[in-house]
């Protein structure tokens, strides 16, 4: 990869739909679920009609492993639309939709079998400007589906700025503010865990905003958020944002739920090739699937992570991350009191794999536990937790800087 680590993630696309032109169509549209459907068309086929209040640019393609159809719009408001209102039949097994990134929304349809897009078009009403995107998918052989699937070649879409940063971020010895990157998990098309009308993505974003405000007001911190709104950010991009910011600390925030067994209380995770227990492994697998659920093609992701991140030395960073995690447990115990019965654990979370940034993942609580959910909804409890994290960061930063000064002598 050369001497510079470059954060790159680009999605390539083509606009499909006859006379639809990107420069002419850019306003927000709303989906009318009463005039839209995703249904079987016989013989392993699917037909999709999406009625929107005005024509907008869109793109459509399929991805393999798992098989799914992806449709992106610039942009459609999905507010109030339920998946069950659109989906019927067996050939399309699930659908999800939401904001994918600023200016773009996404719909992902899980396919029961290999299908190819046989027709795609947009019909616009000349009287009121409303439009219907019509997609028709037909069954194909497995080999044909695999060949035709993938992000299509064409115009580059939404390519973020390339981060040209030193291969290793220099360890601070007490000079300047501590750069803290806060990573609210999930977002946009991936709401994370859901319970009682509340989503993990929204709850951790609220917490992250409050943590940022407290750290900023406290002084001594520069705070960067991987997302500050309800959008989807791929795992690799979250790490890239941290490296581009020159982060001294990376904090990923989550509030998951377990369908089996019971778990409660805040837990702090560090990176490990082996999970500390079965529950930790389950959580890691759930987090890793978020890119797939959002329709990201991970065909080359393993190579990127393995070659760019996993092979870089962590001999210095790993002990620092462990000390950070220990300090966070101590700090939060002093302010919130009760935590998870085993508050320090480890698992193979990809979002923690930046080799030169002490990184931890904080499970603030479990939405499947009523007390944890009540805590996350409580401004008082959140304030205690934020204070604990701030105190921990201050204590860790002082100790880490002192150690760095000794090592440099």
Structural class: alpha/beta
Label the overall shape: elongated
Strand elements, count: 22
Oligomeric state of this protein = single chain
* Total individual domains: 2
Q: Kindly identify the CATH topology of the largest domain.
A: Aminopeptidase
Helix percent band: 25-40%
Number of helices: 10
Unreliable spans are 1-27, 158-166, 301-313
Q: Which CATH class of the largest domain?
A: Alpha Beta
User: What is the average of the pLDDT values?
Assistant: 82
Q: Percent of residues in beta strands?
A: 25-35%
CATH superfamily of the largest domain: Zn-dependent exopeptidases
Description of the molecule:
Strands 18-15-19-22-20-21 form a six-stranded mixed beta sheet, with helices on both faces. A four-stranded antiparallel beta sheet has the order 4-5-12-11. The chain has a four-stranded antiparallel beta sheet with strand order 6-7-10-9. The chain contains ten helices and 22 strands. By secondary structure, it is α/β, with parallel strands linked by helices. It starts with a strand and ends with a helix. The N terminus is likely disordered. Helix 3 crosses helix 10 and helix 8 packs antiparallel against helix 10. The protein folds into two domains: 149 residues, Immunoglobulin-like (Sandwich); 241 residues, Aminopeptidase, CATH 3.40.630.40. A hairpin with a 6-residue loop joins strand 11 and strand 12.
């Amino acid at each position: 990869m050369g001497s510079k680590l470059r954060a790159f993630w680009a999605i390539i696309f083509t606009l499909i739909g006859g006379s639809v032109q990107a420069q002419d169509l850019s306003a927000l549209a709303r989906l009318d679920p009463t005039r839209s459907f995703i249904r079987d068309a016989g013989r392993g086929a699917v037909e999709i009609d999406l009625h929107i209040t005005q024509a907008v640019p869109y793109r459509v393609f399929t991805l393999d492993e798992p098989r799914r159809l992806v449709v992106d719009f610039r942009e459609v408001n999905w507010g109030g639309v339920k998946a069950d209102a659109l989906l019927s039949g067996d050939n399309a097994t699930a659908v999800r939709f939401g904001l994918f990134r600023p200016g773009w929304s996404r719909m992902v349809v899980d396919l029961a079998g290999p299908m190819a897009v046989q027709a795609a078009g947009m019909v616009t009403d000349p009287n009121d400007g409303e439009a219907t995107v019509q997609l028709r998918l037909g069954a194909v052989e497995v080999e044909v589906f695999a060949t035709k699937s993938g992000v299509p070649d064409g115009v580059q879409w939404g390519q973020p700025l390339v981060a040209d940063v030193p291969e290793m971020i220099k360890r601070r010895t007490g000079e300047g503010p501590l750069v803290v990157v806060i990573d609210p998990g999930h977002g946009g098309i991936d709401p994370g865990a859901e319970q009682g009308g509340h989503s993990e993505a929204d709850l951790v974003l609220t917490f992250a905003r409050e943590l940022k405000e407290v750290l900023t007001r406290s002084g001594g911190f520069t705070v960067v958020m991987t997302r500050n709104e309800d959008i989807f950010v791929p795992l690799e991009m979250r790490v890239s944002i941290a490296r581009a910011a020159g982060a001294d600390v990376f904090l990923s925030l989550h509030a998951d739920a377990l369908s089996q067994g019971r778990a409660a209380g805040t837990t702090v995770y560090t990176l490990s090739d082996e999970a500390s227990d079965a529950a930790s492994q389950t959580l890691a697998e759930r987090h890793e699937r978020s890119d797939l659920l959002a329709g990201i093609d991970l065909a080359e992701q393993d190579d990127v992570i393995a070659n760019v991140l996993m092979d870089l030395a962590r001999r210095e960073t790993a002990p620092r991350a462990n000390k950070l995690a220990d300090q966070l447990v101590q700090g939060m115990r002093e302010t919130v009191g009760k935590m998870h019965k085993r508050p320090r654990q480890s698992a193979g979370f990809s979002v923690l794999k930046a080799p030169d940034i002490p990184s931890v993942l904080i499970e603030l609580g479990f939405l499947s536990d009523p007390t944890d959910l009540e805590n996350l909804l409580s401004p008082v409890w959140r304030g205690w937790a934020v204070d604990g994290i701030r105190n921990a960061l201050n204590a860790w930063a002082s100790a880490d800087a002192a150690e760095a000064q000794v090592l440099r002598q």
